[in-house]
Design brief:
two-stranded parallel ribbon, about 0% helix, globular
Length: about 110
């Protein structure tokens, strides 16, 4: 299942902003919002997520454990964010496609 909530001016991802279909959601497009923070355990109930797009959000940091529950995460788009530390990727062992820069930034 795919959920697209891009371009909705979300400022943060916390328990008050729930994505649908926790048990079956595979793709979440959270791009082009105003997401500056994500709570540490936000993705803990979304174990089936394989693809997440957080591009074009003003994220500056993510906790090292932010994606721990996402054992099947294979695609992560962080283009046009303000992240400089990527320790949260250490446990993303199935990650095969990572975007951390956008062409418009070059």
């Amino acid at each position: 299942k795919v959920f697209n909530i891009s371009g909705n001016l979300l400022a943060a991802l916390s328990v008050s902003v729930a994505l649908p279909s926790k048990a079956t959601l595979e793709n979440a497009d959270l791009s082009r919002n105003q997401i500056a923070s994500i709570t540490i355990d936000y993705f803990k109930d979304y174990a089936k997520l394989k693809e997440i797009s957080l591009r074009e959000n003003p994220l500056t940091a993510l906790d090292a454990n932010s994606f721990n529950a996402l054992n099947d995460l294979t695609i992560l788009n962080l283009g046009s964010t303000k992240l400089t530390n990527f320790d949260f990727l250490k446990k993303a062992t199935k990650l095969r496609d990572l975007q951390i820069i956008s062409l418009k930034e070059i």
